[in-house]
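Next comes this protein.

***
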Amino acid sequence: MLALPWVPPSAGKAPYLWVFSLLFLALKYGYQPFKPFELAALVVTVLVFLPLYFASFWPAPRRLPWLILAGCLFGVAWAPHNFGASSFFIFAAGMCGGIVPQRRAYLTLAGVLALAAASYLVLGNYPLAFMLPALGIGVPVGVASIMDASLRRSHEKLLRKQEEVEHMATIAERERISRDLHDLLGHTLSLITLKAELAGKLAGRDIDACKKEIGDIECSARNALAEVRSAVTGYRLTGFRHELASARASLDAAGVDMHERVDSFVIPAAAESVMALALREAVTNIIRHAGASRCDVALTQDGGAILFTIADNGPLAQPVIQGNGLAGMQERVGAIGGRLAVRTDAGMALELRLPMGVCA
C-alpha cells in the first residue's frame, strides 16, 4: 500500500518550506543559556505539532477547528518561556483558510489573533518580539490563506462545471448522431432489403426485371454511402464548431474575453480532430494557469496549409516547460505532417500549421 504524501500535490512544496519558520523558537537560545529539560520539551512540542500542521492541508471540516485550537494552545503554553511561541499562532492563522464559509474563516482568524494578544497580556514576557510577529505576520498570512482558499474553491467549481457541460454535450451529440443515422439509413436499408427480396423472386422468371432491381439496389447503396460520408463530414465540422462554442463558454465563465477569426473552408478530418484537441488543451491551460484576460483564436488558410493559432495575454512568470499537454499536442501535429510553434512574446501563443491534403 502506497503512503500518502504529507500535503496534497496541489499545495506544492511551499508548506515544507514554511516548517523552517519554527526555527524562530530557537532564537532565544542564541543569547540565553538553555535548560536541558526546556529544550527537550520544545523538541517534543515541535514533533507533536508537525503532524497536526500537515494534517490541516487535507480536507476535514470537522477536524480543522481542533487543529487550529491545538496550534493556539501550543502558543499559549510557550508564551511565558519563549517569544518564538508566536510562530504557533501564525501557523494557526494560516490554517484558517480551510474553514468554510469565508465569514466563519475570518471569525476564526480573529479568534486566533485575539488569543495571541491575550496570551501576551497575561503570560508574555517579550513585548515586541512576541507581538510583532504574531500580529504583523499573522494577519497577512491568515487573510492571504483565506483568500487563496476561496479562489481555489471557485476555480475547482468552475472546472467541475466545465467537465459537466462537456459530458452533457457529448451525450447529446451521440444521441443526435444516433437519430440522424437511423433516419438516414433506416429507409434506404429497408428499401434495399425489399428490392433484394424482389430480385430473388424474379431471378428465375424475369431476368430483365431482376437486373433492373439489382441496378436499383446498387444505386440505392451508392446514394446511402454518399449520404453517410456527407453526414460524417458534417459531424466532424460540427465537432470543431462545438469545441469552439465550448471554449467560448468556458473562457467567458472564467472572465476571459475570446476573440475569434474563423474562416469557412473544408477541413480534413484528421486536421479537424487535431485542432479540436489543441483548442481544448489550450483553453484548459489558459483557465488554470495563464491568468489572462483575453484569448485570440484564428483559423485561416495559408497557401496549401491550415494555420490555426490560439494566443493569450497572460503574464509569463517563468519559462514555458513542455509538459504532457504540449508533448501530446506536438505528437498529434507531427503525426499528420504538421508543425507546432510556441511563441511567448506577449503572453503565450500556439501556432499549428497543418497540411490540407492530410488523409482522414
The chain has a mean pLDDT of 80. Residues 6 and 51 are 9 Å apart (CA to CA).
